[in-house]
Amino acid sequence: MIKYLFVIGVILGIYYFFIKKKPTIHSNTQNKHKKEASNTNDMLECATCGIYCEIDDTIISHNKYYCSNECVTQ
Ligand SMILES: [Zn+2]
Question: How many angstroms is it from 43 CA to the middle of ligand 1?
């Protein structure tokens, strides 16, 4: 019996773990969908350093995307 209670406890623990995780994942995907609705791409790769930046923070120069003015001049 003690073994069964232990197994049930573990299952409940895993269950709570996933239930706790699910709402955050759900809200994250909702945020992504909202972002995708306003922007075609969430993140763009900097042509110089390769860092991924949000589209709002990127600088477009010579049809390439840069994360900062430093990368544009490099
Ligand atoms: Zn850069």
Answer: 13
SS3 53: strand
- Tokens read off for 2: 């003690």
- Pairing mode, if any, of strands 59-61 and 64-66? antiparallel
Q: How confident is the model at residue 14 (pLDDT cuts 50, 70, 90)?
A: confident
Between the CA of 26 and the centroid of ligand 1 the distance, in Å, is 31
pLDDT of residue 16: 86
The residues, ordered by sequence, that sit 6+ positions from 47 with a Cβ below 8 Å of its Cβ are: 64, 65, 66, 71
CB 42 within 8 A of CB 55: yes
> Residue 59 forms beta bridges with which residues?
66
| Sequence spans of domains, the chain | 1-38, 41-74
* Pairwise CA distance, residues 68 & 7, whole Å: 54
